[in-house]
Amino acid sequence: MQEISLPYNQEGNRWVVVLTDAHNQHYEITDATPPSHPNAESNNTVIDDQVMRLRFPRLPNLQVTSLTPPSDPFSSQTAVVSWQVTNTGDGPTSAPSWYDEVHLSLNEVYGDGTTSTSAMCRTRATSPPGPATKAAWGSRCPQGFG
C-alpha cells in the first residue's frame, strides 16, 4: 500500500495507473520470452478499470465586501481606510492570517500602471465560511501622488 498526493487543482474522472520499473533499470525476462526480448517489459503497466472521481476540496473565497475610504485626506497626513472581507466559499481559510494590500490609483482601473502600493498589512483572522473579518489601516498618503 502506498499513499499518493492527489493533484490539488483538478477534478473529474481519473484512472490509477501503476508502472513498475518505470525507467527500465532492471533486465527482465519471463519463461515465455528469450533474454532481451521486448515483450518481457510489456507486463509492467496496469490501469485500474475503476474510475476515480476527483472533486475539489471545500475552499475559501475571500472577497472584499465593503470599503470605506478616508473622507477628507490630505497628502502627507494619516488617512484611515477600513474594509470588510467575507469568506463566500465552502471551506475555511487554511492559514491563520493573510496579507491585504491597500493601493492608491489615479483612476478606477487597477493594474494599468497608474496604481501605487501604499501599504501591505497582515490580516490576522481565520475565516470560516460566511462570517466577515473587518480590518482597518491607517497610514500617510504619499506626497505628490496624483
Please describe what this structure looks like:
The structure is a single chain. With 146 residues, the chain is mostly beta strands. The chain has 2 domains: 12-54, no CATH class; 62-140, Immunoglobulins (Immunoglobulin-like). It is 0% helix and 39% strand. The chain contains no helices and 9 strands. It has strands at residues 12-14, 17-19, 45-47, 52-54, 62-68, 78-87, 97-105, 115-124, 132-140. The strands form 4 sheets. A 3-stranded antiparallel sheet has the order 5-6-9, with no helix packed on it. A two-stranded antiparallel sheet has the order 1-4. A two-stranded antiparallel sheet has the order 2-3. The termini are far apart. The mean pLDDT is 76.
Condensed summary:
With about 150 residues, the protein is mainly beta.
Shape: elongated
Largest sheet: 3 strands, antiparallel
CATH topology of the largest domain: Immunoglobulin-like
| Category from helices, strands and their pairing | mainly beta
Number of strands: 9
CATH class category label of the largest domain: Mainly Beta
Q: How much strand content do the residues show?
A: 35-45%
The chain-level mean pLDDT equals 76
Q: Architecture of the largest domain, CATH level 2? A: Sandwich
Distance between the termini: 63 Å
Record the strand order, biggest sheet: 5-6-9
Low-pLDDT windows of residues: none
What are the secondary-structure elements, in order, as H or E?
EEEEEEEEE
